[in-house]
Amino acid sequence: MDRTSNIGRLEREEFDVLVIGGGATGAGVALDAASRGLRTALVERGDFAGGTSSHSTKLVHGGVRYLEAAVTPLDRAQFHLVREALAERAILLRIAPHLVHSLRTVVPAYSLGSALFYRIGLWLYDRAAGEAAIGRSRFLSRAAMLRSFPRLRRKGLRGGVAYYDGQFDDARMNATLALTAAREGAALANRVEATALLDADGRSAGARARGCATPCTGAGSTCARGSS
Length: 228
Ligand SMILES: Cc1cc2nc3c(=O)[nH]c(=O)nc-3n(C[C@H](O)[C@H](O)[C@H](O)COP(=O)(O)OP(=O)(O)OC[C@H]3O[C@@H](n4cnc5c(N)ncnc54)[C@H](O)[C@@H]3O)c2cc1C
Prior knowledge:
The chain is α/β, with parallel strands linked by helices. The protein contains seven helices and nine strands.
């Protein structure tokens, strides 16, 4: 990706889509738009994946924690979201095995109630994944837990539950999306901040932007103004 020539394109060309922000969302939108044949531009005021998209928990689609939101209280729409995320997890494992891998996690249980809660919840998680499951959850006895984790607090330990989730390299995936969008013809530039939207007949028709020698958000960044 050649930043200088892309900035030239941003100044000269007209685009169908302008994406502001080169995090995972922006880079994904740019890739989607460019691969559909839309003339696509993206500006990022810092660096690609410099924001939230490199600071996530690194579990594909947030992992099992969204299941809790689906069952307490029972929420059909949220459960549908969990199923969709699990199906996408399987797709990512297939198409990007260099960025996503399966992660075995073990949760200790210190009461019979929590052992039952985790066991049923994670069984439900397996069921929600269906064909897309990457491993079956299972109950581990107290002895098995202590064999694997000898330094675990012993008092009250009842056992544990092992389950599988997808772990990913969030920043690398963001960068891959940006590079693939560029390969599809999108013009992407980092250290370019959109400072205002330009109006034409009540509709946004472009943006004013400034390019910076350092991330535009940093104190003392050197920037030049422009619009496209
Ligand atoms: C604590 C935490 C844990 C998470 N864990 C997970 C997880 O395990 N799994 C998961 O799938 N998701 C997780 N998420 C959610 C996921 O990280 C976010 O959904 C995702 O990173 C959002 O990406 P984004 O592109 O919308 O935002 P960002 O990555 O923040 O990108 C926004 C970009 O826009 C740029 N920008 C803003 N204004 C301008 C402007 N005027 N001009 C140019 N550029 C601009 C910023 O510089 C920034 O780079 C987590 C989120 C949080 C907060």
